[in-house]
């Protein structure tokens, strides 16, 4: 039997259609999976939650996966599980989505922003060292696999451990990404080979979609139990955990059937069965989606190369096997004599979406006011040049050509 061809059930993938910078690919079997969940007995905390968690843990090579309502909730649960609250400091690279910093900060931690590589937007070992030197100490590092690529997570983890800090990987861009360690071994992002926890998002623009959804993976059973409580009101129903023996058990020591116990108050960050049915169905397509994204990224690499030095392909790191959530072209707008906003508006006129990932978080007025103005030159430089071009699983190489030729025109080639 030959390998199944890519199916494009989405009419939006037709030639000439508007190309957003990212979008989901929902097929008939995804729809059928959701319908099955809707027909089930439980709309939430039902069989699809556990099936998705088991599937995700297996797919990324982790012992435990705890699914939740979105990636931000997953980051918050990570902060809760590692006790990153008032008095804690967390190092976060300046080029990321707001949530990487907001989630631990909302739990009471203060954020120390690290600089990044101006070419890749990824935090480097030296950036982390500088952040530790500035912070004095930090309790955790939230490393970000920007665009689906990873930097030297092994070196970063080593520095974090030497400084007594826990490691969380924000892998919201990076499901399906691999990393080749110093000893040549291949690790999967999510297997926590170098970290305590890894966080994913399954927002529709990410590589697989749940509508809204997220997860945390870990190999530590205690952290897994802590994450489960962080997801569900801080409750436990495990008799071994009960402190209040008198109310929890009857006279012969049998747990009372109604009893649950509050360990510590938490929010409700659960994902429901409808979301998890979609997540599970999409997870089965991860390999196909990643293959497609890699082929499209290779297409961009080839077609952007001749536009150098004004526009250049995304910069690659040494040891990463990226799953490419985003394709970030690097454009020297100054040299091209055209503003980024104009390029984006002109692309939009040609039916092409684009986006900037991201405005450096340390420059957000909230943080600039809280921590004072800081200069992180790598982050500034990356931000000045990045432009995310359309990349999603139902695109074709013809679409990539359409994007790059429109871009070449706008840049004056
Ligand atoms: C998408 C994203 C998040 C947040 O995920 P949501 O599911 O949208 O809450 C966090 N960090 C990064 C890097 C992201 O891209």
Question: How is the secondary structure organized here?
Answer:
Layout lengths: L27 H12 L7 H14 L3 E5 L2 H11 L7 E5 L4 H9 L3 E5 L10 H11 L4 E5 L8 H10 L3 E5 L7 E3 L5 E3 L8 E5 L12 E5 L2 H11 L3 E2 L8 H4 L12 E2 L10 H11 L2 H19 L6 E2 L7 E2 L5 E5 L1 H4 L3 H10 L15 H7 L5 H9 E4 L7 H14 L3
Parallel strand pairs: 2-3, 2-4, 4-5, 5-8
Antiparallel strand pairs: 1-9, 6-7, 6-13, 8-9, 10-11, 12-14, 14-15
Helix pairs in contact: 1-9, 2-9, 3-4, 3-7, 10-15
Bound molecules: pyridoxal-5'-phosphate.
Give an account of the 3D structure.
It is built from 15 helices and 15 strands. It has a 7-stranded mixed β-sheet, with helices on both faces. The radius of gyration is 22 Å and the shape is globular. Helix 3 (71-81) packs across helix 7 and helix 10 runs parallel beside helix 15 (397-410). The longest helix is centred in the C-terminal third of the chain and has 19 residues, at 286-304. It has 2 domains: 28-283, Type I PLP-dependent aspartate aminotransferase-like (Major domain) (Aspartate Aminotransferase, domain 2), CATH 3.40.640; 286-411, Aspartate Aminotransferase, domain 1 (Alpha-Beta Complex), CATH 3.90.1150. The N and C termini lie far apart (45 Å). The protein is an alpha/beta fold and 413 residues long. 38% of the residues lie in helices and 14% in strands. The structure holds pyridoxal-5'-phosphate. Residues 70-72, 96-97, 99-100, 144, 170, 172-173, 201, 203, 214 line the site of pyridoxal-5'-phosphate.
